[in-house]
Amino acid sequence: MLNTGTLFLIYCLSIGEVFMTNSDATGKKSYQIQNGPCTYTFLLPEPQNCGGPSSTFTNQVQRDDLVDYDSSVQRLEQLETTMENNTQWLQKLENYIQENLKQDMAQMQNNAVQNHTVTMIKIGTSLLSQTAEQTRKITTVEAQVINQTTRLERQLLENSISTSKLENEILQQINEIQKLNEKNSFLEKRVEDMEGKRNTELENLEAEKEQLKKLVEKQTSIIKEMEQQLLRTSSDNSAMKQQQQELTNTVNNLIHTISVGSNPAMMQDDPDQYNDCAAVFKSGNKESGVYSLTIPDTKQQFKAYCDMEIDGGGWTVIQKRFNGLVDFHQTWKNYTMGFGDISGEHWLGNEIISMLTQEKQHVLRIDLTDWEGNTAFSKYEQFSLDGEKQNYRIHLNSYSGTAGKTSSMGQPGSDFSTKDVDNDKCICKCSQMLSGGWWFDACGPSNLNGVYYQQGQNTNRFNGIKWYYWKGSAYSLKATTMMIRPSNF
């Protein structure tokens, strides 16, 4: 049993520090072993006091043990000696173990401290590097925050400046609006005053208008009377002109009789014999020129230019243009009576044309010349013109010619219009817009009485002398001739 306790004590001493304490009150020795945080206490057996027999023993036992008492004492003494030796040995072993364990524990502590120091240094280094990286990141973020803050502050400053400017502008606008309101109020008052004055003026104008209307009516009646007087005077002048023409013809006949080789174009026979140039041609006068003619069924004479060369001759010219010396933007009356120079540019007169074409069926020929020297013609086998009551309505049929495959004269049955008498089918008043007098219909594809434009200025002119199906609507021609001849020539 002692050996077992000794081994256990040696095992415990091998794993921890052993401390021996003093004996307790019972006389037993105690041993403490420190292993880490744990402390273990052991009590070793001590020899009992065996000096005499116990009073509790019976006499029978005392007698039986008395013989062996001396041997037992000897054995106990030996055991006590052995225990003391063992105790000394244990003390030496304890001292040895303590010395060896102290060195090992110191070395282990040093190793642990070194390992812990290295680990702590590594951890500290890692923490320092992480701290430096975090510090760098924090510095970068702080710089970004400072930059962003600076930019925001700058923007706020700019916005503040802009806001101040806008506030100033708004204040200026408010001031201007107030001024405008004041001006508006002032103008409203002036407008009210002006409206009152205008109403008064309108009333006065209405009264003056009534007076003017009455005055115009009086003047109209006076003008009609004057026109009648002018007509009577014109008829008297016509009679005087007729007498003068008769005298001139007589003188010319005498000159022709006396002079040999005189110009047959200037020779005028008895005008009562010739109603048109076809009759003059058939009488043997085949020289183009101005002849005196007589309106059928009347004694009223007129002069006309006779073309005796084109397409067999015998043509009575009713319109001629070639130099722009005559203004064709004339009134209704002038187009009715005729105007211009018979030997130059002229319009024969709608009344004469109507009388000639009402007597018998006529052919109309139109010759055209452009600024490039090209010529073309349009021919109508049936042509007539109504009287003034029918607005000199035109009638055409059987077209042929080289000035376009289609006729440019517009719709047959169109009325004649001038700048002061509008008979077209357009609300725009074609004569005023395109100039001249013509059978415009709805402003139509032709107008040979338009404005005369010289070369270089004759393109892109919609109010010029146009013939659409030959040169288009914007080309103004150089020369035109309109002439008529009986269909049975």
Terminal Cα span: 182 Å
Structural class: alpha+beta
Radius of gyration, whole Å: 75 Å
> Rough shape?
rod-shaped
Number of strands: 14
> Would you list the SSEs in sequence order as H and E?
HEEEHHHEEEHEEHEEEHEEHE
Q: Biggest sheet: strands, sense, closure?
A: 9 strands, antiparallel
The tally of helices reads 8
- Flag low-confidence runs: 1-21, 50-58, 259-272
The pLDDT mean sits at 80
Query: Which percent bin holds the helix content?
Result: 40-55%
Strand content: 15-25%
Quick recap of the structure?
By secondary structure, the protein is an alpha+beta fold. Helices cover 49% and strands 16% of the residues. Strands 4, 5, 6, 7, 8, 9, 10, 11 and 14 form a nine-stranded antiparallel beta sheet that branches.
Structural features:
about 500 residues; alpha+beta; nine-stranded antiparallel beta sheet; three-stranded antiparallel beta sheet; about 50% helix; disordered N terminus; Fibrinogen_a/b/g_C_dom; glycoprotein; ANG-1/2/4
Give a description of the structure.
This protein has 489 residues and is of the alpha+beta class. It has 8 helices and 14 strands. Strands 4, 5, 6, 7, 8, 9, 10, 11 and 14 form a 9-stranded antiparallel β-sheet that branches. A 3-stranded antiparallel β-sheet has the order 1-2-3. The model is unreliable at 1-21, 50-58 and 259-272 (pLDDT under 50).
Set down the secondary structure blueprint:
Elements: H1 2-15, E1 17-20, E2 30-35, E3 38-43, H2 59-65, H3 69-258, H4 277-282, E4 289-294, E5 301-307, E6 315-321, H5 332-337, E7 339-340, E8 346-347, H6 350-359, E9 362-369, E10 375-385, E11 394-401, H7 430-434, E12 446-447, E13 466-467, H8 468-471, E14 479-486
Antiparallel strand pairs: 1-2, 2-3, 4-5, 5-6, 6-8, 6-14, 7-8, 9-10, 9-14, 10-11, 12-13
Domain Fibrinogen C-terminal: 268-488
Main location: secreted
Organism: Phoxinus phoxinus (Eurasian minnow)
